[in-house]
Amino acid sequence: MRGLAALLVCFLAFAPARADVALWRADPATSAIELSVQALGSTQRGRFETFEAFIRMDPHQPQSAEVEVEVAAASLAMSNGALTSRAVGPRFLDARRHPTLRFRLLSLSPAGPGRYTAAAEVTAKGRRTRVVFPCALRFEEGRAQMSGGFDLDRAELGIGTDGPWNRLISRRVRIDVNLTARRVG
């Protein structure tokens, strides 16, 4: 989760030079923030349905981009519906007491044609952790498209660290992000 902000910046960092600093907005209808985790003997998948990205950047100086993403913890829908209430409940995301997951970009570095390395801070349940991950960018017809993913240790964020379910679910959670953003100002 903590790399989502960095993924967004990767996605926007090298937009065509039409203006200096601009505001961008992710389009939730054509974007996805998904997770997968080994649990109960198989891979369980989920998707966050509600999120908002705050992006301010100069395409000529992507290293100075400001990106913050807020994800509604309660918007997680697991493919196995019976797991959704547990995932957003008090022993895991605890969406009632901690309604928002936050991602903040720390840095962005070129890693080859159309590829970048991003570092971001993820905050959940009042705890922070840092992730570094690769991402890819593509630009066409006024849109920027970013894809990438990273692994997150849920225990670092205090997610599901006690109770009987902790033993049945891997600590490693995979976050995959595919975002489309449009310039808004």
Automatic annotation (TrEMBL):
Superkingdom: Bacteria
Ranges for domain Lipid/polyisoprenoid-binding YceI-like: 23-182
Protein name: YceI family protein
Keywords recorded for this protein, A-Z: Signal
Signal sequence extent: 1-19
Species whose genome carries this gene: Brevundimonas balnearis
The keyword Signal belongs to this UniProt entry's keyword annotation: yes
Pfam families for the chain: YceI
